């Protein structure tokens, strides 16, 4: 479903250029859940953002469901419909109600009728357990509720892949569970997911593979049981010692 | 002192009242000094006045009958050449003839009065509609220019910067002259069109900067969320960024519009009869210089403060989603 070959992303701002993603190759098959962990600044977000074209990469290849993002004939907007993304800070549209947040892109991107979009939105809000907040504005919701709306908003496009960039890092501890539950259910239903997170419990229970990133490179790629009990890389070991 | 005490306000209100009173007295003394005679009674007629329409006899003849009917009287004239009797209606207190009087064709019989809009009201109206139209066009220009200013295309960006710098770096009065005497002559524009055009271009440049700042103030995450859902750049702008940006820049935009109402007084230099020009014209005939200028100032003040109130109300309504 996701195929990445020798991906390179360089930020060349002031000072010396940063190789945020440095020659990364990996694959995620259909229905697989991959968790990406690593220290802050290791390039996890940048890698994830390259997968839906939010970040233009410098070299390499990203292929989503057979479509090459680097191809000049590829319409990135059509690829993005198939790739949902959930952000650390939710990024709900504050001037739209919860319900409108979930229907808007269905209407203008998927060109669904109002009836179709409304039914889909209601079903998804029910699924993430927040239907009663539909007429509210996002500012009236708790962080956990906002993140669940953001997940529903992404799911409304019927994506084939979901990307999560630290979806629980901005939440108060008591709200982390409700968001992880929704993600776990999604994984059980067979969604292909790439998740950047520091929730080791989630990685252990839900992920098929754990990727450990440091300094723009994937240093270790292993099933969670293996990774958490016997990490090969010294840097992965050091990282795990810090977070566990 | 951490303990909060009720602070005593009334002496300060008293002081404020005293200062304002002092100003008023100063004004009064100053006008006494120059022996100015206030003629406030002359002002209202420039808002509304009663025009007299003289009713003239359409034929030569004799007044045959006068039929008073309250404020109006019906006057019948028997034509000298013996045709059908003609009747006219005039206001009783303007009646100039008695029964039996001979009248020639065109002689005044009396008059009918009706209310007419005076030059001050008319000027106020011109100021309001010119400001409104040029503000609307300016908002549109500003929106387009603001978007161009942020465009990745260097040509669009350069044009926008050029236009904004050109307008912001020259006085409005000079722009009005150039627009009227140069562009207006080349394109054969009506003076009203030239005036509105100059004001719209002027306000457009300032609006563009306000809108640019508004767009830039919207968090990047909003654009990223919209784009990640598959929205195009244009859809993201119209559905996500602009609505939030416009809401945020409503106060400075309204301030710009309020300034426009005041700045519009400059179009009086190309002989557009706005509120300021009306004021100047009235003074030449009324000799009530101080009164008229004070009235004109008050009218501007009333319009701008009404707008401020409207803005206040709008902001409260828009605050719903916060
Ligand atoms: N827009 C940007 N401009 C310049 N440097 C950036 C930008 N975004 C990220 N970086 C740099 O790229 C590196 C990787 O960042 P990021 O992908 O956000 O790491 P992570 O998500 O793992 O914390 C960091 O060194 C960061 O400073
Ligand atoms: Mg990150």
UniProtKB/TrEMBL annotation, chain A:
| Coiled coil regions, renumbered to chain | none
- Tell me the membrane topology, using the record's own terms: Peripheral membrane protein
Report whether Nucleotide-binding shows up as a keyword of the record. yes
Q: What are the UniProt keywords, alphabetically?
A: Amino-acid transport, ATP-binding, Nucleotide-binding, Transport
GO molecular function annotation: ABC-type amino acid transporter activity; ATP binding; ATP hydrolysis activity
Single GO cellular component annotation? plasma membrane
Q: What is its main location?
A: membrane
Q: Where is the ABC transporter domain positioned along the sequence?
A: 2-240
State its location(s). Answer: Cell inner membrane
Q: Which family does it belong to?
A: Belongs to the ABC transporter superfamily.
Q: What is this protein called?
A: Glutamate and aspartate transporter subunit ATP-binding component of ABC superfamily
Origin organism lineage: Bacteria, Pseudomonadati, Pseudomonadota, Gammaproteobacteria, Candidatus Competibacteraceae
Q: Which gene encodes it?
A: gltL
UniProtKB/TrEMBL annotation, chain B:
Can you list the GO cellular component terms from the UniProt entry? ATP-binding cassette (ABC) transporter complex
Q: Which GO terms describe its biological process?
A: amino acid transport
Recite the UniProt keywords alphabetically: Amino-acid transport, Cell membrane, Membrane, Transmembrane, Transmembrane helix, Transport
All copies of domain ABC transmembrane type-1, residue ranges: 124-311
In terms of InterPro entries, this protein maps to: AA_ABC_transptr_permease_3TM, ArtM/GltK/GlnP/TcyL/YhdX-like, MetI-like, MetI-like_sf
Instruction: Note the Gene3D superfamilies from the entry.
Output: MetI-like
Q: How does it sit in the membrane?
A: Multi-pass membrane protein
PROSITE patterns, alphabetized: ABC_TM1
Q: Name one GO molecular function term.
A: transmembrane transporter activity
Give me the segments passing through the membrane.
Answer: 12-30, 122-148, 160-183, 189-208, 292-314
Q: Where in the cell is it found?
A: Cell inner membrane; Cell membrane
Recorded family membership:
Belongs to the binding-protein-dependent transport system permease family. HisMQ subfamily.
Q: What does this protein do?
A: Part of the binding-protein-dependent transport system for glutamine; probably responsible for the translocation of the substrate across the membrane.
The name this protein carries in UniProt is Putative glutamine transport system permease protein GlnP
Please tell me the species this chain comes from.
Candidatus Competibacter denitrificans Run_A_D11
């Amino acid at each position: 479903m996701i195929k990445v070959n020798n991906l390179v992303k360089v930020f060349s701002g002031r000072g010396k250029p940063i190789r945020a993603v440095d020659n990364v190759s990996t694959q995620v098959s259909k229905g697989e859940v991959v968790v990406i962990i690593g220290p802050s600044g290791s390039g996890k977000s940048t890698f994830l953002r390259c997968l839906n074209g939010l970040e233009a990469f410098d070299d390499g290849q990203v292929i989503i469901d057979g479509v090459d993002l680097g191809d000049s004939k590829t319409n990135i907007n059509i690829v993005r419909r198939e790739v949902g993304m959930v952000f650390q800070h939710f990024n709900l549209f504050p001037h739209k109600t919860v319900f409108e947040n979930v229907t808007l892109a269905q209407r203008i991107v998927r060109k669904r009728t109002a009836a179709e979009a409304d039914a889909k939105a209601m079903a998804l809000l029910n699924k993430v357990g927040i239907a009663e907040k539909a007429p509210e504005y996002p500012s009236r919701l708790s962080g956990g509720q906002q993140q669940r709306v953001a997940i529903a908003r992404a799911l409304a496009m019927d994506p084939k892949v979901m990307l999560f960039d630290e979806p629980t890092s901005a939440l108060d501890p008591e709200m982390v569970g409700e968001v992880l539950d929704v993600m776990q259910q999604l994984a059980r239903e067979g969604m292909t997911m790439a998740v950047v997170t520091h929730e080791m419990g989630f990685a252990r229970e839900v992920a098929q593979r754990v990727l450990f990133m440091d300094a723009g490179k994937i240093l270790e790629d292993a099933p969670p049981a293996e990774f958490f009990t016997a990490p090969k890389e010294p840097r992965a070991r050091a990282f795990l010692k810090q977070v566990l | 002192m951490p303990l909060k005490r009720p602070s005593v306000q009334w002496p300060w209100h008293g002081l404020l009242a005293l200062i304002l009173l002092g100003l008023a007295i100063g004004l009064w003394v100053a006008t006494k000094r120059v022996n100015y005679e206030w003629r406030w009674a002359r002002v209202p007629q420039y808002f509304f006045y009663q025009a007299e329409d003289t009713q003239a006899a359409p034929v030569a003849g004799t007044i045959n009958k006068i039929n008073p009917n309250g404020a109006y009287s019906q006057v019948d004239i028997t034509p000298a050449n013996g045709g059908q009797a003609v009747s006219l209606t005039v206001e009783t207190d303007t009646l100039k003839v008695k029964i039996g009087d001979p009248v020639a064709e065109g002689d005044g019989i009396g008059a009918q009065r009706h209310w007419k809009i005076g030059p001050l009201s008319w000027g106020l109206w011109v100021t309001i509609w010119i400001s409104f139209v040029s503000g609307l066009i300016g908002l549109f220009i500003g929106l387009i220019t603001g978007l161009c200013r942020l465009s990745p295309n260097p040509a669009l960006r350069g044009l926008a910067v050029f236009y904004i710098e050109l307008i912001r770096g020259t006085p409005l009065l000079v722009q009005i002259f150039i627009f009227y005497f140069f562009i207006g002559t080349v394109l054969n524009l009506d003076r009203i069109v030239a005036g509105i055009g100059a004001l719209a271009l002027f306000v457009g440049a300032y609006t563009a900067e306000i809108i640019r700042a508004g767009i830039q103030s919207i968090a990047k995450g909003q654009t990223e969320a919209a784009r990640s859902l598959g929205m195009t750049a244009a859809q993201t702008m119209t559905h996500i960024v602009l609505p939030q940006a416009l809401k945020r820049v409503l106060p400075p935009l309204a301030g710009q519009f309020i300034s426009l109402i005041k700045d519009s007084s400059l179009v009086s230099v190309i002989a557009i009869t706005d509120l300021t020009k009306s004021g100047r014209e009235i003074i030449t005939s009324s000799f009530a210089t101080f009164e008229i200028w004070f009235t004109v100032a008050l009218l501007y003040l009333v319009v701008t403060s009404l707008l401020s109130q409207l803005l206040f109300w709008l902001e409260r309504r828009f605050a719903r989603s916060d």
